[in-house]
Amino acid sequence: MSILKPSRLALTVAGALAFGVLAACQTPEQAVSSAQIETVAMTANQRQDAAAERRLREWAKQGLPVAERELGMLYRSRPAQRAETIRLFESAARAGDAEAAFQLGELYRVEVAGATADPAAAAPWYKLAALQHHARAALMLGLLYKNGSGVRQDDEQAAKWLDLASDQGNAHAMFLLSYAYNEGRGVVRDPAKGRKLLEEAAEHEYPPAIQELAMVVQQGDSHSAKDELRAGHLMKEATEHRHNNWNRF
């Protein structure tokens, strides 16, 4: 009894059908990675590449949060597309993208041509991102509570969010929290912890912290003896870092 062997054409057709079924079962998230989306977004932004922007729009229409966030970041410099930028960030943020939530907070907080600052609208988005351990969002939320900007002024809440940002390695938050512990503002007064945070912020190369530490060391205090040599080195370091665009913190 002879066994019929499938032809090469039949195998090819079967393989193509199997691949089609597999592709149909894939979700958009599986079909394209976040890294791919971000690479295309970089091309669209840096090279003003229209094809890359179209691809980004296609992915955003599929509901991919990373694509929505990256397209929103591309649009945020275009005042005429502010409403669409907000929609994209909101959609991505609600899908769990912490960076999109942070960017939406920034969009509301900063006044730009044609749109007034609205820190009250920014606060919940910062909180959403901060709860996902977004350090800069926690820092900004801490600042809102510290200054009573868009929210009720609350030193305890300010310290809470600054502490979260500090734990995530944000030097600006460490610096501000050091003052809170030195003064007992929103936390139990603890100068030793305040000094530790100041040292940590300086180690993270945050110029205001380095400069503050230099002045403390120059005078001497209960935590260290007067050391003018170290103070001089610290002041020089602070100046150098200021020239290197330390505003990234």
From TrEMBL:
Q: Which PROSITE patterns match?
A: PROKAR_LIPOPROTEIN (PS51257)
InterPro entries reported for this sequence: Mitotic_Regulator, Sel1-like, TPR-like_helical_dom_sf
Segment forming the signal sequence: 1-23
Keyword Nucleotide-binding on entry = no
What are the alphabetically sorted keywords of the record? Answer: Signal
Q: Which SMART domains match?
A: SEL1
Entry-linked PANTHER family: ACTIVATOR OF C KINASE PROTEIN 1-RELATED, CHITIN SYNTHASE REGULATORY FACTOR 2-RELATED
Q: Can you name this protein?
A: Sel1 repeat-containing protein
